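This week, study the protein below.
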Amino acid sequence: MYSDWKDVMFDFNILKNSTVLIIKNFEETINLNDEHIGITTNLFYSPYKGVFNEEIQSWKDTLEIVSESLENWMKLQITYM
């Protein structure tokens, strides 16, 4: 999963007459994040996670922060558009 995120980049436009940055074409990133949250949740509840428990928890927390950030950014964009 880490390698899938290595090359993720956002393209931005500036909304006319403002300083608001609008993310272009971020649906793929949302889909990737949702997919990885599902995989990580399955790993989190696996009885075989053992020594990976802390790494799984950390990655799950990171993905949830990304999800919340993208959701808030989408709400902001809708407000300004």
Remarks:
- The mean pLDDT is 90.
- The chain is about 65% helix and 10% strand.
- Residues 2-16+26-80 form one domain.
